[in-house]
Amino acid sequence: MSESKHDLEGHMEKNSSCIVSPGWKFWKMRRYVVATMAFFGFFTIYALRVNLSIAIVAMTENKTVVYENGTVTLEQEFPWDSVVQGYILSSFFYGYITTQLVGGWFAMRMGGKKLYGLGVAATAVLTLMTPLAANMGMFALIFLRILEGVFEGVTYPCIHAVWSHWAPPLERSRLATLAFTGSYAGTVVSMPACAILAELFGWPSIFYVFGIFGLFWYSLWVVLIAEKPSEDPLISDEELRYITQSLGDTNEKNIKYPWRSIVTSMPVWSIVVAHFSENWGFYTLLTQLPKYMKDILDFDLAKTGFMAALPYLAMSITLALSGQLADWFLVRGILNVTQVRKFFNCGAFIAQTVFMMGTAYATSTTVSVICLIMAVGLGAFAWAGFSVNHLDIAPQHASVLMGIGNTFATLPGIVSPILSGYVVTTPVSDIYTYFPL
C-alpha cells in the first residue's frame, strides 16, 4: 500500500463490489471456523477479565462471624473500601494499555494467530494464580492483574492481523462482529457463573474454572486454526480462491508503516475518538455494574450476577445482528462503506446517551434495569462502525491502527473505576480535592 495520506484514507469500498460471496454452507467455510474460534477466544478473555468484578463482591462482603465466647460480628475477608477496590479493578488496564501498539506491530511480524493464542493462554495461567496473589496482599494482586493486562492487551490488535488474511471485504462486518460478540457472550456467561461458583464453592473457584477453560481453548486454537488460508490444509479450493481474489496480496513481509500519514489522518483519529467514547461507558459498567446492582438496587450476590449479565446478553445479540445488517446494506448497494460506518456508529451513540440518562433519572429498579439493557444493547451497533473501519481504510496496517485506537480506548478502563470509587464515596463538593480543575 502506498505511504501517501491519500492512499491511507482512500476509497474504502473500491474492491467491495468486485467479488460476490459464494453461498456455501456455514460449516464448510473455514473463515467462519476462524471467526467461531475467535469468538470463543474473546469469550475467554472477557471471562478472565470480568471475573474479578464479581469475585471482589464476594471477597469484600460482610460475613457473620461467631467467636468462641459467643460474640457475633460482621467481618470482611478482605477489608478493602470502594477506593481500594477501584484501584484493584483498574490495575488490569495499566498493563493492557502498554501492549496495544506493540501487539499490532508484532502480530504482523510473527503472525496474528500465534500472538492471539499466546495472549489468551498467558492470561489464563495468571488467572489460576489469582487466589494466591490475593492472599499475599493487595499489591501482589494489583501486580498480577497488571501482568494479565500486558498479555491480554495484544489480543484485539492481533485479531485484525488475522482478518487481514481471512476476511473478504463484503464479509468484514459479519466476521469481525461475530468474533467480537464473544466478548459480550463471555461477560453474559461469566457474571452469573462467577456468582454461582462463589456461592457454592467460594470465590477462588472462579479463577480456577475459567483459567482451566482458557488453556483448553488455547489447545483447540493451536490445532484447528492456520495463520493464513494458504496454510490451512482443510480449506477448499473454491474458498481459497475466493478469499485470495477478494483480498489480493496480503504478504506482510518487509511492510513499511506510513507513520506520518497515520498520525495526520482524520479518519484514523475519528476511529480513535469513537473507540474511546464507546469504551468509557463500557468499562464503567463492566467494573461498576455488579456493585451498583448489589449496593444500590439491593440484589443479593447470585441475583447480581444474573442481572448484571442482562445488558451484555442484549449486546451479544445485537452485535451479531449489527454485522449482518451492515454487510446487507453493502451487498444490496443501499449504503456505501462510509455511510454504513457513520450511521451505525453515531446512531448507537445517540441511543446510548438517551437510555443512560433514563437510568440516571429512573425511579424504580425495573426501569433502571430496562434502560441499562437498552443502552448497552443498542450500543453494540457502534461496533459495526468503528471496530471494522481499520480494515476499510488500510487493511495491511489494520492491526497497528487497532493498537493505536485501543491504546487510547484503554484509558477509560484506568480512569473510570478510580473516579467512580471516589464519586460514590465522596460528596460532589469534595471531588475537586482529588481532581482539581
UniProtKB/TrEMBL annotation:
It is a multi-pass membrane protein. One of its GO terms (molecular function) is symporter activity. The keyword DNA-binding does not apply. InterPro entries: MFS, MFS_dom, MFS_Na/Anion_cotransporter, MFS_trans_sf. Its main location: membrane. GO terms for cellular component: basolateral plasma membrane; lysosomal membrane; synaptic vesicle membrane. It is found in: Basolateral cell membrane; Cytoplasmic vesicle, Secretory vesicle membrane; Cytoplasmic vesicle, Secretory vesicle, Synaptic vesicle membrane; Lysosome membrane. The keyword Amino-acid biosynthesis does not apply. It catalyses: 2 nitrate(out) + H(+)(out) = 2 nitrate(in) + H(+)(in); D-glucuronate(out) + H(+)(out) = D-glucuronate(in) + H(+)(in); N-acetylneuraminate(in) + H(+)(in) = N-acetylneuraminate(out) + H(+)(out); L-aspartate(out) = L-aspartate(in). SUPFAM superfamilies: MFS general substrate transporter. It comes from the Eukaryota. The chain crosses the membrane at residues 32-59, 87-108, 115-134, 175-200, 206-226, 306-331, 343-361, 367-388, 400-424. Residues 33-437 form the Major facilitator superfamily (MFS) profile domain. Keywords: Cell membrane, Cytoplasmic vesicle, Glycoprotein, Lysosome, Membrane, Symport, Synapse, Transmembrane, Transmembrane helix, Transport. GO terms for biological process: carboxylic acid transport. Receptor for CM101, a polysaccharide produced by group B Streptococcus with antipathoangiogenic properties. This is Sialin. It comes from Cryptolaemus montrouzieri.
